[in-house]
Design brief:
The protein has 470 residues and is α/β, with parallel strands linked by helices. It is built from 17 helices and 10 strands. It has an 8-stranded parallel β-barrel with strand order 3-4-5-6-7-8-9-10, surrounded by 5 helices. A two-stranded antiparallel ribbon has the order 1-2.
């Protein structure tokens, strides 16, 4: 019998994440899927009624169908892999391994080390040599060789493994950082000891206009010769820099892994102040218990609802055409889009339950159908004004307060899509200045600053409220 996962237990609790997810808040791109199955109108619709989005439906006994060579590592990785930011227990990781997933992306900071420990417990049931583990560490300029070695040994102990396949520098934000002497000296020693096989780097993109872009950093990493695997943002709305990185990686035989693969949401929960839905009622109760007045709480809930209804109107045409009743359908086809590029070796999908693994594994080795491709083409125009591109900082020059919009939206993604509320809120609180607070009284000088049409001020007010919830 399957053991209860954290997600299963969390379904009995209602918190702000539940509200935002259920209302379809398109705060940031991500690849975390919910628990609702794909509706029959999408997954199993008769061809005489309308074309099906997917060539195959999710299968409880399905397995990974496609493996790709991870650059010069030579390792054959599953095209769909496990993003382990939410892993705390072995059950989900073990189930993923059973389905043929053999690449895991984790980090020292995921669940304060619990992710690595959960992977450890799952590994005990499998041949270690058949699983590729990439873990990441926050390496800073001040860190020397001994500091890096200490970080590595802590990860190795949590994983209880003789070695780590790829030990990666997380969030490398300058080309200069790629030459970090402490990191490379530590890697040279660990490779000689047989404790590390490969190295790597990750980057979400800049936080300010004076910082280096994602493509500039990661292309330099690919050309450096000392980095074997890269993790980059890649989705159908945000791929121009990713395409450049992938081409450079191919030329230099570097492994590619994708994050933030599925941007956008499609639905909003109806809001009626005189007849609140169950989720709105429970959320209102929490707000009242926190000391907020009923009038203020309802006003805030209506603001969320208005924002989501505005978005949904733009997606209604193609949502109705394909019978899409959940965000999950769009997320799955977005992942499928990533898999169409044979030079993207694996898509790291953050999962927290068995059902989700079944659904993403069912995408392995599949091709987009014509209607699915058409859906993505149509959705670009509707989703584009709702999606803040990771690493895009063009709007900052218009802001007198230098609000780091893209970075703040990434923290909202951690909160809303990954369930890492405390982590997201702590990162937001640690920002220099006051985050998006200045947007409250600003005259809106950022209007028109986003080339994609994002309503920056409104989004910042939403996210500030989200990330400062006590």
């Amino acid at each position: 019998m399957k053991k209860s996962t954290r997600a299963d237990r969390d379904r009995s609790r209602v918190n702000r994440r539940d509200f935002v997810r259920s209302s379809g808040a398109a705060l940031a791109g991500g690849a975390l899927l919910g628990l609702t199955p794909i509706p029959e109108s999408v997954a199993g619709r008769d061809s005489s009624e309308a074309p099906s989005l997917f060539p195959i439906g999710p299968s409880q006994d399905g397995r990974i169908q496609s493996y790709r060579t991870l650059g010069r590592t030579g390792f054959q990785v599953s095209d769909v892999s496990l993003g382990a930011a939410l892993i705390r227990e072995a059950n989900v990781a073990r189930y993923a391994f059973d389905k043929g997933i053999n690449y895991i992306d984790t980090a020292e900071g995921y669940e304060n080390g619990a992710s690595e420990r959960g992977i450890r417990d799952a590994l005990r049931h499998f041949d270690r040599k058949k699983i590729f583990i990439a873990t990441k560490a926050n390496i800073r300029p001040r860190h020397d060789k001994e500091t890096v070695l200490n970080k590595f040994r802590q990860s190795l102990a949590r994983l209880d493994s003789e070695y780590i396949d790829a030990y990666m520098m997380s969030s490398v934000d300058t080309v200069k950082m790629l030459d970090h002497p402490g990191y490379h000296a530590a890697m040279d020693q660990l490779k000689a000891e047989g404790r590390v096989k490969f190295t790597g780097a990750t980057y979400h993109g800049p936080e300010a206009t004076d910082q280096t872009g994602m493509a500039d950093v990661l292309c330099a990493a690919a050309e450096d010769g000392r980095f074997d695997v890269l993790l980059l943002v890649y989705n159908f709305l945000n791929h121009s820099e990713g395409d450049r990185i992938i081409a450079t990686c191919k030329a230099n035989h570097v492994g590619t892994t994708a994050m933030k693969t599925a941007p956008g949401k499609l639905r909003a929960e109806p809001f009626d102040p005189d007849n609140l839905s169950e989720l709105y009622q429970q959320y209102l109760h929490l707000m009242l218990r926190a000391g907020q007045s009923r009038e203020s709480a309802l006003r805030e809930l209506k603001a969320y609802s208005d924002e989501q209804n505005k978005f949904v109107e733009g997606t209604k045409v193609f949502a109705e055409r394909y019978g899409i009743e959940t965000d999950e359908a769009l997320q799955l086809v977005s992942i499928q889009w990533v898999l169409q590029n044979p030079d993207m070796h694996t898509a790291c999908i953050s999962v927290w339950n068995f059902d989700t693994i079944d659904k993403v594994v069912a995408l392995s080795g599949t091709k987009l159908t014509a209607p699915a491709d058409e859906l993505l083409q149509e959705s670009r125009s509707s989703l584009s004004p709702q999606y803040c591109r990771h690493g895009c900082v063009e709007c900052m020059d218009s802001c007198p307060f230098r609000v780091p919009v893209s970075n703040i939206m990434r923290y909202a993604y951690y909160f809303e899509s990954q369930g890492r509320e405390r982590y997201a809120m702590s990162r937001y609180a640690a920002l220099a200045g006051s985050g998006a607070a200045p947007c409250t009284d600003c005259a809106g000088l950022c209007v028109g600053a986003c080339r994609y049409g994002l309503d920056i001020q409104r989004k910042m007010l939403q996210v500030h409220d989200l990330l400062t919830l006590a």
